[in-house]
């Protein structure tokens, strides 16, 4: 496990844009006895060694929760890291494919770390920018490694960037102002005093609002609790808001401070000194990432997304944030792209999710997980 978790520090040595994850978080996420994701899923981990050197890693995943929801038999691969070594990559993917076949899977999708509710996709454009919080990053050559193993594009995901919060369309501002004057429409921030109740509302909205979106997997109660523990540590209650229409929770918008500059300083470890570094350098957080932004279907044609966007834009501007990343957004989600364009955003990163049919071919690799 140490070799698996530590490998990225060798792969990304000297890469100024890579942000080291907290090792304890990675270990917890991969631990079936500790992380709630694995209550409805299973996984296998592989290392590729060339002589005594570890040159690659990968996880094979069967998400029974997702397969039930989508009526599929699709395995997943994730947590992939590899030297620029096509034979090592082929061995890793071959091992996962063989394992997934034995589990009865017909296709293999990835990268998912470990599902679309977590880090998703392979970065294929925008390598010159560091990742925002909870977004993936990888070297450019990973695309060649993945495609050389027979994987094809299933869906591209886009991240959009806003670098000037006052560059919004006049139409957005006028519509937001008009909606703000309606007595039956309200926006309120997340309340830490009623944390459990707020989590329940957020989880219900997420399951409803995103249920028809590409890649959706219904988050379990345990996963929701795990995520909101993280949000409680890094979140800003003013940047997570509920939209109500006639006292009915209509939607949610969540923006998180991009703490990646602080994570970079921690270099994977969080002890007492790390906590002190975080506390003393909060001013290094210059931007935010839009995590959730959606409305129940019956409210989507009222213009409420424009109101929520304008509300959060004003708060972020008032807190002197310098940029906002919104992502990921599916390439064909035109409604989301239209809203972001009205807000002065531009696409600046692209990620790809791949798919491969497994067929009935024989195992070509001898691999020991």
**Total number of helices:** 12
Give me the CATH architecture of the largest domain, please: 3-Layer(aba) Sandwich
* Overall CATH class of the largest domain: Alpha Beta
Which oligomerization state do the chains in this entry correspond to?
A: single chain
Q: Give the terminus-to-terminus CA distance.
A: 11 Å
Describe the structure.
- It contains 12 helices and 14 strands.
- With 369 residues, it is α+β, with helices and mostly antiparallel strands.
- The chain has 2 domains: 2-155 and 353-357, Gcn5-related N-acetyltransferase (GNAT) (Aminopeptidase); 162-350, Gcn5-related N-acetyltransferase (GNAT) (Aminopeptidase, 3-Layer(aba) Sandwich).
- The strands form 2 sheets. Strands 1, 2, 3, 4, 7, 8, 9, 10, 11, 12, 13 and 14 form a 12-stranded mixed β-sheet that branches. It has a two-stranded antiparallel ribbon with strand order 5-6.
- A hairpin with a 5-residue loop joins β5 (112-113) and β6 (119-120).
- α6 crosses α11 (304-318).
Main traits of this protein?
two-stranded antiparallel sheet, disordered C terminus, 2 domains, 12 helices, Aminopeptidase, twelve-stranded mixed sheet, 35% helix, 14 strands, 369 residues, single chain, alpha+beta, globular
Briefly, what is this?
This protein is of the alpha+beta class and 369 residues long. The chain has helices at residues 2-11, 23-30, 64-70, 86-102, 142-148, 170-180, 195-209, 221-234, 260-266, 272-280, 304-318, 334-342, and strands spanning 41-50, 53-63, 74-82, 107-110, 112-113, 119-120, 122-125, 152-162, 185-189, 240-245, 248-257, 287-295, 323-330, 346-357. It folds into two domains: 2-155 and 353-357, Gcn5-related N-acetyltransferase (GNAT) (Aminopeptidase), CATH 3.40.630; 162-350, Gcn5-related N-acetyltransferase (GNAT) (Aminopeptidase, 3-Layer(aba) Sandwich), CATH 3.40.630.
